[in-house]
Amino acid sequence: MDKIDSSISVISDCTYPTPLKFAGRDSTAAIRYRRDSDRIHIFPCSRGGEEHATAPTFERAGPREFITGDPSRMTAAILTCGGLCPGLNDVIRGLVMSLSHHYGVKKILGVRYGYAGLVPNGHSPLELTPENVDDIHRDGGTILGTSRGRQDVPASVQTLLDWKVNLLFIIGGDGTQRGALELAEEFKRLDAPVAVIGIPKTIDNDIMWVDQSFGFDTAVQIAARVVNDAHVEAKSAERCIGVVKVMGRDSGFIASNAALASLEANVVLIPEVPFSLHETDGLLDFLEQRIRENDHAVIVVAEGAGQEHFGKNSDAAITDASGNKQHQDIGDLLCEKIQQHFELKQHPVNIKYLDPSYSVRSASASSTDRIYCTRLAHSAVHAAMAGKTGMMVSRWSGCFAHIPLGMVTRGRRKIDPTGSLWRTVLEATGQPCLSNGAHPAQQPHS
Ligand code: F6P
Fold it and tell me: What CATH number was assigned to the domain covering residues 9-213+365-408?
């Protein structure tokens, strides 16, 4: 593995005493300042001694005793990019409250429609205040609006400099964080001291170096309820199969966790694990056996699963504005293939197809996510005040930490088909290996 550089860049020295009132100046105080030397291990260490002491670490998040300058003279900007996710408004609220109440920042701009609001002819920004964000957490979505896609970096930087922004908070997925890194680099090239802080947002839970992304808890709760609904439907009709399609472009976290949270799914299909349809011991064989023995079945499928069943021509890369490959509709395909299969056997089945994708994404945050969003937002503000830049705040191994954007943009998080989450899914559903024994995920189940 390449040597890990987890160092965080800073825009200037910190010599200005923080205006924070609740933190103490020594270790006996109830709330301590963090130092950059407070670290967490990137990988869980199994051995102690020298190996433990030299293992790579992340800087811990939290308030610093000295910051870059007088916050009352600073201007902050906040923007949200990409698809919706429960908790976006909570993060915006947390940023505004911390900037204003904790540090005394007087001017906070809400950029409209993501990066599109930074280029000429974009919408004018909204002025955000504790008063106008006070109750936004009750609603899903983002009060700022969002969009996909990159915009011209020098033009965006010029807009932010014209607005006299010193602190920039960018909430979005891995593509958005790549954009944040480009902005941070351009500010550096121009020698402009602007702190650029990323906040990871993904309903798919697929950003690197994040324990679990905000909104995911909410997503699983809602999706699990729909899996229960599908089960009720499937059990209430003769020879009935409930199919639930959830989001998950390249990662099957929502599908797997919703199945585990409901405990009503018999099959989970995810992008990380290919499956056979018609072959012996493939999905259709399994469904036949399940209907014969139990008269009903529930399938949870992630949108990116089974793309291998669409044929070679469909491989032509159609991408969305964020550059993500757009997948074919596996939910529709499954329903069609299942229907055809049982009709050919002259013993048709009933199919109930439920697609809660956008309902999951547009919900307001659960209590767990709400707490998480506020803590992430406050960590982001503390980092910006300490002049950190080109970094993302995250919760890693249960601790809030600073992750360099260069590390975040190197890949996407996926379910390990040989790991314990997928094993638990197989154990809990009782689903067999559906890929002709070719896949390492095959496990004996009881
Ligand atoms: O943001 C991730 C995601 O929710 C994916 O799961 C999904 O493929 C995609 O966004 C769909 O978003 P939209 O319909 O807004 O382009």
Answer: 3.40.50.450
Nearest CA to ligand 1 atom 14: 83
Q: What is the pTM (predicted TM-score) of this model?
A: 0.93
Where exactly are the structural domains of the chain? 9-213+365-408, 216-362+416-429
List beta partners, residue 200.
172
Task: Please state which of the four CATH numbers 3.30.70.1350, 1.20.58.110, 3.20.20.70, 3.40.50.460 is assigned to the domain occupying 216-362+416-429.
Answer: 3.40.50.460
Under a CB-based contact definition with an 8 Å cutoff, are residues 186 and 155 in contact? no
pLDDT beyond 50 at 441:
no
User: Minimal CA–CA distance to 335: which of 357, 351, 319, 315?
Assistant: 351
Answer yes or no: are the C-beta atoms of 286 and 305 closer than 8 Å.
no
Number of residues in the chain: 446
Q: What's the pLDDT tens digit per position in 180-217?
A: 999 999 999 999 999 999 999 999 999 999 999 999 99
User: Does position 434 have pLDDT exceeding 60, yes or no?
Assistant: yes
Distances (CA, A) of 338 to 273, 307, 327, 343, 355: 19, 16, 20, 9, 17
**Kind of pairing between the strands at 75-80 and 107-110:** parallel
State how far the alpha carbon of 176 is from the alpha carbons of 81, 170, 183, 200, 304, in Å: 6, 8, 11, 9, 21
Identify the bridge partners of residue 396 per DSSP, sorted by sequence position: 399
Q: Which among 4, 366, 46, 80 is positioned nearest to 212, based on CA atoms? A: 366
Is residue 305 helix, strand or coil? coil
Smallest CA separation from ligand 1 atom 9, residue = 83
Protein residues with CB under 6 Å of any ligand 1 atom:
82-83, 203-204, 247-249, 303, 320, 361
